[in-house]
Amino acid sequence: MVFTLSFMQIQSYSQPFKIERIEPHPRIFLKAGEEERIKQKISENDYLKQVHNAIIAKCDELLTVPTVSRILTGRRTNSGSVLDRIFCLSYACRMTGNDSYKNRAIQEMLAHAAFSDWNPSHFLDVAMATASLSIGYDWLYPVMNEQQKSIIRKAIVEKGIRDSDKYFGFHKSSNNWGQVCNGGMVLGALAVYEDEKELAEKIIRRGVETIRLPLKAYEPDGAYPEGGGYWGYGTGYNVMMNAALESALGSDFGLPDSPGFKESARFVQYSTGTSGKLFNFYDNGEGVHSDIPILYWFAKKYNDPGLLYLAQSSVKLQGRFNSDPLTLIYGSQVDFSQITPPTEKMWVGYGETPVILIRTSWKDRDGLYVGVKGGTPSTSHGHMDMGTFVFDALGERWAMDLGAQNYHTMESAGVDLWSMGQNSQRWDVFRYSNKEHSTLTINNKRQSVKGKAPITEVFKSNKRMGGRIDLSSLYPEDVSQVTRDVELLNEQYLQVTDNITASDNAARITWTLVTPAAVQKTGENEILLTQNGKTVVLSVKSPEKFDLSFVPAAPESGQYGEPNPGVTFIRLSCQVNAKSRTRIQVLLKPVF
């Protein structure tokens, strides 16, 4: 052991905490001499070689463009782009010894250090800038002169970690803010430790303790409440913090053992459909989301190469791969010959945002995929979308989620976007209310922000895979009970069944499907969906009487949002009498 800590299990960051020894620079992620392991693996593994070459090519381009300047767009700066530049350039320098990469990385750091500030009013920007300069400072410490070190170190301390307690209270946050900000601050503390021991120990102590709050979001089984895209963001900084602590101090303080954290890698793996698109509920995009750098850390940390199956599959299918040094640092420690597909077709996660995720095949573009969610609108980044689902078949997405809209466009229009009250402007935003999701709207009302939709039953046979979600508390004034069953039958088609019991008054029910397909009514109860030469038949099995409409996915008067060319809302509307029951049952059958 190269270190000792006075308290291995920290109970409160107000308690004594002393680091007796810390690894010399470089100590964050990749210590001196460990480049040789990566070089060896690059020579043996074609994928890792491609990632390495992509990083070098990116760095060669960076040599010809200006350094990043401070650009403020609304509340946010462009600090996120700096991490990619400095991380890649520092990697290229360590792997090749080329002074051009070293000099350019130092230029980027000095340019960012010279900014008037790192935008502390939006502290995520400070955290990302601090992480960026800390990695570069640590990795290039042996080859920088004293003046360069002094300038960059001062910026990390004065613009990053010293006054971090003053802003936002991120250390009390249970969402990605707690992960990103703690991660950035701990990387900063580890980088400048020798010159700021007392401050650094305080930051590390605080980070190790307070990051446990957002880690509770993974409980009990890894379903990340904010969705797959934000899993990559929040978990990414959590992973960098864990990895940096382990490499620099020899201990990650048991943080990766937090309940559900390990399993969350399966959550994001199963969140990717057979179309290659993410189940992008809440503020997430549907873009390809399988080759994620931190998955290589998960695969190495938990000795589970199968976590990389979709990553490697997507590379082969699309010829796309990431260009992030983390992939090489941890991928070089994984046995690629042991990468096998998951053995289970269905993954169920409970917690704040419960999900059921089913994939009938792990072969490229084969099989069916369905993802359905419960939860509550009041979750961080939440939408009023309880009961919504996505459906993939024939390699295409047929039921979709519109996902996120650019925050700045809404904030610049004066929208109070981050208030989660029932009558908040947030729910006037197109894409955010239940009307714009593949779920139910009752009496033209919003879902209740106080409501919670749990999974109450799971169906696990091949003949019937799926589950039941209780949506009743989302519509407390209009119905006494409403449940939704979403299930794949015989691995051939999707069936969605809503059972609704009205309260003392009649209720008007609107069932919505959001689809990117061309829509054609071919019978009283049948709709033909087509895209890219492929077909799915939508059949309405019940009720007997209903109204049907096809509506372009464009904002209505008074809504904030953007049009979505080619996307259609299929709306099925029916009446349920007072204290009576009705069933809406719809089938989606691919034409193979």
Helix and strand layout, with pairings?
Blueprint: H1 35-44, H2 46-62, E1 72-73, E2 76-77, H3 79-96, H4 99-113, H5 123-140, H6 146-161, H7 176-191, H8 197-210, H9 212-215, H10 228-249, H11 264-270, H12 293-301, H13 309-318, H14 325-331, E3 346-349, E4 355-359, E5 369-373, E6 389-393, E7 396-399, H15 407-412, E8 440-442, E9 455-461, E10 464-470, E11 479-489, E12 493-502, E13 507-515, E14 518-523, E15 526-531, E16 534-542, E17 547-552, E18 568-576, E19 581-590
Antiparallel strand pairs: 1-2, 3-4, 4-5, 5-6, 6-7, 8-13, 9-10, 10-11, 11-12, 12-19, 13-18, 14-15, 15-16, 16-19, 17-18
Helix pairs in contact: 1-2, 2-3, 2-14, 3-4, 3-5, 4-5, 4-6, 5-6, 5-7, 6-7, 7-8, 7-10, 12-14
